[in-house]
Amino acid sequence: MTDGFARLPALVSPWVENGTLTNYLEGPGREISKGARTYILVNVGEALDYIHSQHVVHGDLTGSNVLINGDGQPLISDFGLSSILEEFNKTTYFKSHRTGAIRWVAPELLGEVVSSPKPSVKSDIYSYGCVMLHVITFFASYVPGLH
């Protein structure tokens, strides 16, 4: 984290050559093998298990928050976004009714049953399932005879 760019601190991360998982699957990773897709999913699952073992909930796991480096290694990104938004939500800097992308969100976080629901390990696992479906769906849509 660094200061000096604007009124708020800025997050700085290394450049990741292949961009997000979503963009990777739409571009250079479109034709990667089933094994390479499984490798990505297993590594994301292991990373998620690790952060949960450290009592951290990601809260916004999506295909856009998984980055793919030049070696095809997935990296989970955007940690703490929810807590940063929550911390500054009372200011004029951020106004958000719900963080995260609806497509990847566990149903219990949509606020229908519980007001002001909080992300949890269970909601992260639901989002991971959505990431898995996303990766498998891209695979099935581009491999002949796998429909």
From TrEMBL:
GO terms for cellular component: cytoplasm. GO terms for molecular function: ATP binding; protein serine/threonine kinase activity. InterPro entries: Kinase-like_dom_sf, Prot_kinase_dom, Ser-Thr/Tyr_kinase_cat_dom, Ser_Thr_kinase, Tyr_kinase_AS. PROSITE patterns: PROTEIN_KINASE_DOM (PS50011), PROTEIN_KINASE_TYR (PS00109). Residues 1-147 form the Protein kinase domain. PANTHER family: MITOGEN-ACTIVATED KINASE KINASE KINASE, NUCLEAR RECEPTOR-BINDING PROTEIN-RELATED. This is Protein kinase domain-containing protein. It comes from Paxillus rubicundulus Ve08.2h10. The lineage of its organism: Eukaryota, Fungi, Dikarya, Basidiomycota, Agaricomycotina.
